[in-house]
């Protein structure tokens, strides 16, 4: 690298969650040291690539090879714009805290050494820093984010409110991601591989029956259903009576209106109040009341009336 000063300048600010964990920062006015002191802390230096171990707490489980090749080519031309972050081990080796993608791409690019921030961190701090740093990256998929949130809660003993503050997210957002981990493995893999979207997954969560979840999931993939369509399907599955009721009610209302019209016409025809009753299936009866024998005879004459 021809210009270490430019390469090692700090690129933008860290997320507040990660920044709160790391004491000290690289000062742009400070000359970056090309070598590393015996007991470094909060400094920047070039570290041989073969002395860096990968992070056992790395939350990312998948690195796209084509994307790594593109980054490696950029590094060959531009160098490392943002140093990786490591901690020094007792063995004299270094262990990645964050920046594994840059580290892997640097090896592909053939770099012998790579600029790095060197921090003091115990295992829990290292896990927390690695998780939060990765969560704040836009290209992390929804399942990786959900798993990272779960690890922060369980392994770092954080509560959901604290977690939201660390990663700069609302508690409801954190909860929505954590709920994804309740989905069947097939659906989680599809979400990870971008076969379905976060919106699809959130709709599927609301289906309690796993078999129905998987059935709707297969329809999403096969029929390329939109999120809105899936939400509609889920509403019908969860509220079958509510969905059918308006149609039944509309039919009943139509029937009731027709019955009233028939009642009115018959009452006019017979000159007395006629009652027409009908049930949901369309069956019913007609009642013709009379107050005397004379009125009955009159009605009978009407019924026999031919013209």
UniProtKB/TrEMBL annotation:
SMART domains reported for this sequence: ParB
Alphabetical UniProt keywords: Chromosome partition, DNA-binding
Highest taxon above the source species: Bacteria
GO CC terms in record: chromosome
Keyword DNA-binding attached: yes
ParB-like N-terminal domain sequence ranges: 45-135
InterPro entries: Chromosome_partition/occlusion (IPR050336), HTH_ParB/Spo0J (IPR041468), ParB/RepB/Spo0J (IPR004437), ParB/Sulfiredoxin_sf (IPR036086), ParB_dimer_C (IPR057240), ParB_N (IPR003115)
GO biological process, one term: chromosome segregation
Family stated for the protein in its record: Belongs to the ParB family.
Protein name: Chromosome partitioning protein ParB
């Amino acid at each position: 690298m021809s210009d270490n000063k430019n390469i090692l300048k700090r690129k933008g600010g860290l997320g507040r969650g990660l920044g709160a964990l790391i004491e000290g920062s690289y000062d742009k006015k400070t000359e970056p040291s090309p070598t590393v002191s015996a007991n470094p802390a909060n400094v920047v230096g070039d570290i041989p690539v073969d002395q860096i171990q990968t992070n056992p707490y790395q939350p990312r489980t998948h690195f796209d090879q084509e994307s790594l090749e593109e980054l490696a080519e950029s590094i060959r031309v531009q160098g490392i714009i943002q140093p990786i972050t490591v901690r020094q081990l007792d063995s004299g080796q270094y262990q990645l805290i964050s920046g594994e993608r840059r580290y892997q791409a640097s090896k592909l690019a053939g770099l012998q050494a790579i600029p790095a921030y060197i921090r003091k961190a115990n295992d829990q701090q290292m896990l927390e820093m690695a998780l939060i740093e990765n969560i704040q990256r836009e290209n992390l998929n929804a399942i990786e984010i959900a798993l990272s949130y779960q690890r922060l809660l369980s392994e770092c003993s954080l509560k959901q409110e604290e977690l939201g503050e660390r990663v700069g997210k609302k508690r409801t957002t954190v909860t929505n991601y954590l709920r994804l981990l309740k989905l069947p493995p097939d659906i989680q893999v599809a979400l990870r591989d971008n076969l379905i979207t976060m919106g699809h997954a959130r709709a599927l969560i609301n289906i309690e029956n796993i078999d129905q979840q998987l059935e709707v999931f297969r329809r999403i993939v096969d029929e390329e259903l939109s999120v809105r369509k899936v939400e509609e399907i889920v509403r019908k599955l969860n509220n079958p009576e509510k969905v059918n009721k308006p149609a039944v009610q509309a039919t009943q209302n139509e029937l009731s209106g027709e019955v009233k019209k028939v009642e009115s016409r018959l009452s006019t025809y017979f000159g007395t109040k006629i009652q027409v009753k009908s049930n949901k299936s369309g069956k019913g009866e007609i009642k013709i009341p009379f107050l005397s024998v004379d009125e009955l005879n009159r009605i009978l004459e009407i019924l026999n009336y031919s013209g």
